[in-house]
Amino acid sequence: MPPPALPGPATPESLRVNRLLMHPAAKPVVGLLCALPFLHLLLGALQLGGVELGANPAETLIRSTGDWTLRLLLATLAITPLRVITGWSALARYRRMLGLFAFFYGSWHFLAFAWLDMGLDLQAILKDIAKRPFILVGSAALLLMLPLALTSFNAAIRRLGARRWQQLHRLVYAVALLGVLHFFWMRTAKNLLGEVAVYVVVLAVLLGWRVWRWRHKPGRPEAPRP
Ligand code: HEM
Fold first, then answer.
1. 4: in domain
2. Residue % of the chain over a pLDDT of 70
3. pLDDT at position 39, please?
4. Which end of the chain is less enclosed by CB atoms within 10 A, N or C?
5. Sequence-separated contacts (24+) of 9-15 with Cβ below 8 Å
6. What pTM value is reported for the model?
7. Which of 99, 129, 85 shows the shortest CA–CA distance to 30?
């Protein structure tokens, strides 16, 4: 994660939004919203509550969990730009939760693949990872998410020290790039790139904003003129 952002403009509107974001019920509500897709898939998998997962439930489970992993990853990356641009500084409280939900969905995505596609056969899983590059890229993304999830708690921040923790959490950029590449690679084989393009644009904006801000950071030495 990047260093703490400068607080955005404090306007009456931003103060109102911040108050709302600080409301004791706001975090549980956002947590519930993040959990809803999972609950929907769970009901469908257990064939409860009249929820159906379509003609190919295994495919729905694998794809939906993959979609939510990527969406929540990008939502996590959107927190800092939104805070800085809008002044909704209380959004910072939600970043860890969104990141952990991304990891949660990523783990279920892997589990659904390993179980429903591969029958939990470790050899078959490793063979498929080695054989299909898009799965290799997805696996690399998930592996890189692991240290982020394990060090997302206050005790880990204290133990690592803020600087090292921040450096480690920059891995989130690699995770997002690999996640989008994984999706692109999978869909390009099927020539279905419309949806992927949306994710590519969102990620480009989120990373582009960071590069722009870094280049305009006060105190950064001017690039030497030719
Ligand atoms: C951060 C990690 C990952 C992200 C963000 C991610 C994301 C996605 C997305 C967005 C899709 C497409 C869903 C759709 O078509 O709507 C997908 C599909 C898929 N992913 Fe992942 N994935 C990740 C890790 C993994 C891992 C670790 C594996 C397996 C080892 C994996 C295996 C698959 C498979 C088998 C599909 C479905 C391919 C198909 O139906 O043809 N992914 N993933």
1. no
2. 93
3. 98
4. C
5. 9/87, 10/87, 11/87, 14/86, 14/87, 14/88
6. 0.92
7. 99
63 lines ligand 1 (CB under 6 A): yes
SS3 46: coil
Domain count, the chain: 1
Backbone φ, ψ for residue 126 (5° rounding): -65, -40
Please name the residue that has the structure tokens 């911040």: 18
Q: What are 71-123's pLDDT values in tens digits?
A: 999 999 999 999 999 999 999 999 999 999 999 999 999 999 999 999 999 99
| Predicted pLDDT at 4 | 44
Using CA atoms, how far apart are residues 73 and 62, in angstroms rounded to an integer?
A: 17
Whether 28 is covered by a domain: the verdict is: yes
CA 103 – CA 26 distance, rounded (Å):
21
What residue owns the CA closest to ligand 1's atom 20?
66
At residue 73, what is the residue type? Answer: L
- CA 125, 36, 58, 181 torsion-angle sign: negative
Is residue 142 within 8 A of residue 110, CB to CB? The reply is: yes
In a domain, 27, yes or no: yes
Domain containing 156: what range? 12-214
Residues 207, 173: contact at Cβ < 8 Å?
yes
Q: For the purposes of burial, counting CB atoms within 10 Å of the CB of 61, is it exposed (0-12), middle (13-18) or buried (19 or more)?
A: buried
In a domain, 172, yes or no: yes
Measuring CA to CA, which residue among 146, 142, 173, 144 is closest to residue 69?
142
